[in-house]
Amino acid sequence: MPDGQDAERPRQELDPVANWLLKEARPIQDSATLIGGFANRLLATGFPLKRVFVSMRTLHPQVLALSHYWEAGESIARVTPRAYDALESDLYLLSPIRVIHEGRAPEIRRNLAEATAPYEFPIFAELKAEGITDYFMVPMPFSDSSINIATIATGRAGGFSESEIARFRMLIPLLAVTLEIREDKRIARTLLTTYLGRDAGRRVLAGQVRRGDATSIAAALFFCDLRGFTQMSEALPREALIQMLNDYFTAMAEPVEARGGEVLKFIGDGMLAIFPIADDLDRDRACLTALGAARDAIRGMDALNGARRAAGEIELRAGIALHTGTVMYGNIGAPERLDFTVIGPAVNLTTRLERLCRTLDRRLVASDRFASPCGFAMISLGKHQLPGVSRAVEVFGLPEEGKLA
User: Fold this and answer.
1) Is 402 among the domain residues?
2) What SS3 state is found at 324?
3) Are 153 and 50 in contact (CB under 8 A)?
4) Which of 1, 185, 194, 293 has its CA 20 to 30 A from that of 253?
5) Which of 172, 195, 218 is the last residue of a domain?
6) Do 147 and 265 have their domain in common?
7) Residue 181 and residue 262 in one domain
């Protein structure tokens, strides 16, 4: 070949959709927007798209996979979370996705214009009724070897051409890489929120990761503890014990999170949460909000115990302590094992305060500092000396426990 002949050849242009995935799609943060942008740019090049479907496995305590649906005319994909029990449903068991996951076919293509019933997959009848003429599904592997799914469908007479199918196959690796980056970030946010809490997870992602990196904040503190747990742990089977703890923590944590609180940790059968206080003028709001969450938690425990009585199970009793003060909020622990939590005298007082629930036969007690902005919502239960606390603390409770407004 003569010298310079390669240089004289026109450079092959990169597919415009591939170019978009490599460059313009980089700032897009979520998968739904990225899939919608991908589909619309493919459509704009003359690709006869009517539908795109992408299913991706994820890491979440309740969600197994996220299904993304796009149809022509939509700007972004619609996202449907799939719970773990989806693997036992007909939607999955009778779907082509299962065939790909099990490795029984490298890809699936079906000319629905020519196909007649009975169909090997129920979805084919649905798609044909919607005017789909051609359907193509391919695996979309991620770097962790998880097999995700991408599907395209058209309503054009004659379906997809072979060059269009080849083009889509060529784009899949780029789409997979671009989606995996966003999914990894989303999973990191989800796991940090799940294990650390919303605010703590956000702070860690923002770079607050060094040991000793902590901030002094004011907060209303919420601490609860389950009574008789040691005896129950010895008497109950493992599965029943775990279910009982999950039900109890749900009753306690959901009201805290619903009212904007931050559950920081579960300590055996105890739970520590905070309601951050923005400034001095915000203290009353934080205390009243924490009190509302505690009342909701007591109602939740009443409902849970009603269900347990009906099932012939023992009732659960828990104590809740409320306090307010300044705490150190941040990374504490060993060099290779950190905990994002709160420490300080206010935390110590709160945990010691909870022990009075048993002594006073109360489900909720609060310190005088916490109760002062709550007015008639709380009544004095007298002054009490707490272990390790120099001053006697005036303790407050609900006026009529069991008759909550």
Assistant:
1) no
2) strand
3) yes
4) 185
5) 195
6) no
7) no
In angstroms, the CA 274 to CA 133 distance is 56
Can you tell me the distance from the alpha carbon of 200 to that of 191, in angstroms, rounded to the nearest whole number?
A: 11
> What SS3 class is residue 168?
helix
pTM: 0.78
For residue 323, the domain's CATH number is 3.30.70.1230
403, part of any domain:
no
Give 78's DSSP letter.
Answer: E
Same domain, 128 and 143: yes
Domain assignment present for residue 329? The answer is yes
Cβ atoms of 284 and 369 closer than 8 Å: no
Q: Which residues contact 136 (CB under 8 A, 6 or more apart)?
A: 107, 108, 109, 151, 152, 153, 160, 165, 168
* Domain count for the chain: 2
Q: What does the alpha-carbon distance between residue 145 and residue 129 come to, in Å, rounded to a whole number?
A: 35
Residue-level pLDDT, tens digit, the chain, 405 residues: 455 444 444 445 689 999 999 999 989 989 999 999 999 999 999 999 999 999 999 988 899 999 999 999 999 999 999 999 999 999 999 999 999 999 999 999 999 988 777 788 999 999 999 999 999 999 999 998 889 999 999 999 999 999 999 999 999 999 999 999 999 988 888 888 888 888 888 888 888 888 888 889 999 999 999 998 888 888 889 999 999 999 999 999 999 999 999 999 999 899 999 999 998 889 999 999 999 999 999 999 999 999 999 999 999 999 999 999 999 998 888 988 888 889 999 999 999 999 999 999 999 999 999 999 998 899 999 999 888 887 889 999 999 774 433
Angstrom distance (rounded) from CA 230 to CA 44? 65
Residues 222, 271, single domain; the answer is: yes
Residues 178 and 209 grouped into a single domain: no
Asked whether residue 188 falls in the same domain as residue 239, the answer is: no
Task: Judge whether 81 and 198 are in contact, CB under 8 Å.
Answer: no
- My answer on whether 202 and 188 are in the same domain is no
Q: Distance between CA atoms of 7 and 11, rounded to whole angstroms?
A: 9
What domain range is 227 assigned to?
198-397
Domain annotation covers residue 380: yes
Domain shared by 100 and 149, yes or no: yes
CA–centroid distance for 14 within its chain: 38
Order of all β-strands in the sheet with 63-71:
78-83, 63-71, 51-57, 147-154, 134-141, 108-111
